[in-house]
Amino acid sequence: QVQLVESGGGLVQAGGSLRLSCAASGRTFSSYAMGWFRQAPGKERRFVAGIERGGSTYYADSVKGLFTISRDNAKNTVYLQMNSLKPEDTAVYYCAAEGRVPGTFDYWGQGTQVTVSS
Predict the structure, then answer these.
(1) Taking CA atoms, which of 17, 72, 73, 95 is between 20 and 30 Å from 25?
(2) Can you tell me the distance from the alpha carbon of 90 to that of 58, in angstroms, rounded to the nearest whole number?
(3) Cα(87)–Cα(3) distance, integer angstroms
(4) Measured in whole angstroms, how far is the alpha carbon of residue 90 from the centre of its chain?
(5) What are the DSSP calls for 30-57, one per residue?
(6) Could you give the maximum distance between any two Cα atoms of the chain, in Å?
(7) DSSP E strand boundaries for the chain
(8) What angle (nearest 5°) sits at the alpha carbon of residue 15, between those of residues 73 and 114?
């Protein structure tokens, strides 16, 4: 089992930045991949960014060059640095942990609201 707690959301003006954090507990943090997803009102939850155990990263096309995912295995924490935010980035952001089957995200945090005003 993995428990995840996000923080760092809030209200920011367009063009601003936020850094989200997700603290994990349970299984050995360095042993699984982590990801960030988001869900805008009335829309499906969508993938934003992921980071492998070894540190390789991958992003949705919509956030490439704007968002950066990173992990600190010593702190059991994954981060999402979000720059040049736009109103369309408004959503609840969730972090997720890879399950026993590689490539599947089985554990989810409660989410943190990010609101970007125009």
Answers:
(1) 17
(2) 21
(3) 30
(4) 13
(5) GGS-EEEEEE-TTS--EEEEEE-TTS-E
(6) 41
(7) 2-7, 10-13, 18-26, 34-39, 46-51, 57-59, 67-72, 77-82, 91-98, 105-108, 112-117
(8) 55
Rounded-to-integer distance, Cα 98 and Cα 108, Å:
9
Q: Which of 69, 47, 44, 72 is nearest to 60 (CA)?
A: 47
User: Residue 56 class from Cβ within 10 Å (0-12 exposed, 13-18 middle, 19+ buried)?
Assistant: exposed
In the DSSP assignment, the letter for residue 78 is E
d(CA 29, CA 17): 26
